[in-house]
Amino acid sequence: MPPTGRPAHELLAELRGLRAGDAPTRGGWTFAYVYDSGLPQLDELATAAYGVFATVNGLDPTTFPSVARLENDVVRAVSAVLGAPGAQGSFTSGGTESILLAVKTARDHARAVRGVTRPRLVLPSTAHPAFHKAAHYLGLETVVVPVDPVTFRAVAPAVAEAIDERTALVVASAPSYAHGVLDPVADIAAAAAQRGVLCHVDACIGGWFLPFLARAGRPVEPFGLSVPGVTSVSVDLHKYGYADKGASVVLYRDADLRRHQYFAHAGWPGYPVVNPTVQGTKSGGLLAQAWAVLHHLGTDGYTALARRVALAADELLPGLRATDGVRVLGEPAGSLVAFTVTGTDGAPDLSLVLHVADEMRERGWYLQPQLSYEDLPPNLHLTLTPATGDRVGALLADLAASVSAARASEPVTVDPALADLAAALDPDTLAPEEVAGILAFAGLGGEPGLPSRMAPVLALLDALPPRLKERMLTEFIGSLFSI
C-alpha cells in the first residue's frame, strides 16, 4: 500500500497495461475461456448495469427486494427457454458453483429420502472436473464410467450398470466441454429414474445455446428438464448468454428438491442466516448485468447469434476435415470442436498437436491444448462464438501453415527413464525440493511465468501419472501467487 493515494487515471492506466499481456477477450482470436458476442454495445450495457447494483448486497433480499425481483426474472427466463416453466432455481457465480450446489442437493436428498450415508456420484469420464471438485468438497465417492472412444459420448448401458443403492446422482453433459458432443441424456436419465436416483445435466455450455440453435432451425436432441428423469440442470449465462463472468443458473424440477440446496443457521446470537447458494455476501451487480443483457438481446437476438455460430461451424468443420493430418473428434453438437493431428501412420501424434498449438499462438490464435486421457487422444479445443464467424478462413489458413511447421519441427519427446522415475514417485510424499526439481526440468522453475513454447512442458505433463500431474500443477499455480 502506498502511504498516500494514487490518482485514479494513473491506476487505470496501470491496469490497462497489465491487460496488454493477456490473451485477447474480444475479436475472435481466443478459442477458450471467453464468449464474445461481437456486439460492442453489450459490454457497455453490462458494465453500466453492474454499476447500478454494485453496492447492493445480494445476501438479504428482504433488505434489498430488488435482488429477488431480478433473480426471479432471470430464473423464470431460463426455465422458459428450457421448456420447464415450473422449475425452481437459483442464480450463482458460475458453472462450478451451480454444479457444486446440484451435487450438494443430491447428497442431502439421498440422505433424507433414501437413507444413503456413503453417497456416490456416477459420471462419464468426460464430465467436467467441477463434479470431482464438488465430490471432494462434499464427501462423495466418484464412480467414473469410460465413454465411447469413437463418438466420445457417454455409454448409457455402462452408466446404468454403475448405478447402485449408494448412488446419489448421475451426470450427463449437454454437451461435454472436452469434445463438444451431446451425451445420450434421455437414456441416462431413464436409467437413473428406474433406480430412483437423481440425474443432473451439465448444460453450462449448451443450456443457453442449444435452445436457440433449435430456434434457428438446426436439429437438437432434447436435454433439459422436459426429458423424463432429468431432475436438475446447470446453465451458464456468462457463456452463450454473453453476460460478464460470473453468471449461472441451477434449475431443479421443483421447490421440494431445491430446498436441499439451502443452508440455514439460527443457532447463534447474530442475525438469522439463510443462504440459497454457496456465497453469502455478494454484489448485486453480477445479477443486474446478466438480467440487463438477457432482456436487451431477447429471443430474436439470441437466435440470430446462435445462427452466426452455426454458420461458423458450417465453414470450420469441412475446412478442418479437408486439412491434411487433421481429424475432428466425434460429431460436435454445436459450438465446441475438438480435433487431433495425426502422424504419418494416421494415429494421433502428441508432439504434432502441441507444436500446432504453439505455432498457432505465435500467429495470434489461442487454441486450447488437451492432453491424452486413457484411450482418448490429445487434441486442440475450439470454442466458437459469433465473433469468430468472419475469422474462420484466416484460422484455417494459419492452421494449415502451423501443421506444416509442426511437421518440420523436432519432435518433442520425454526421456523414458524420467517417465519411469515419475511413475514410481508418490505425489503425497514428495519433498518441496523434489517438486521444485521436477518443475525446473519441465521448464516451469525459476522466474514466475510460462516459457514461450509450451510443447516440451505439456509433453512431460502428458507422460506423468494423473496424481503426480495434479501435484505438479498445484505447485506451479501456487508459485504464480507466491509473495
TrEMBL record:
GO: which molecular function terms?
aromatic-L-amino-acid decarboxylase activity; pyridoxal phosphate binding; transaminase activity
Q: What's the domain of life for this entry?
A: Bacteria
Its membrane topology is listed as: Single-pass membrane protein
List N6-(pyridoxal phosphate)lysine occurrences by residue: K239
Annotated localization = Endoplasmic reticulum membrane
Q: Where the protein is mainly located, per its record?
A: endoplasmic reticulum
GO cellular component terms, alphabetically, are: membrane
> Among its keywords, does the record have S-adenosyl-L-methionine?
no
Question: Which pathway does it take part in?
Answer: Lipid metabolism; sphingolipid metabolism; Sphingolipid metabolism
Pfam families, A to Z? Pyridoxal_deC (PF00282)
Q: Which UniProt keywords apply?
A: Aminotransferase, Endoplasmic reticulum, Lipid metabolism, Lyase, Membrane, Pyridoxal phosphate, Sphingolipid metabolism, Transferase, Transmembrane, Transmembrane helix
A Gene Ontology biological process in which this protein takes part is:
carboxylic acid metabolic process
Write out the transmembrane intervals: none
Q: Which cofactor does it need?
A: pyridoxal 5'-phosphate
Q: Which family does it belong to?
A: Belongs to the group II decarboxylase family. Sphingosine-1-phosphate lyase subfamily.
Q: What is this protein called?
A: Aspartate aminotransferase family protein
Species, as recorded = Streptomyces mexicanus
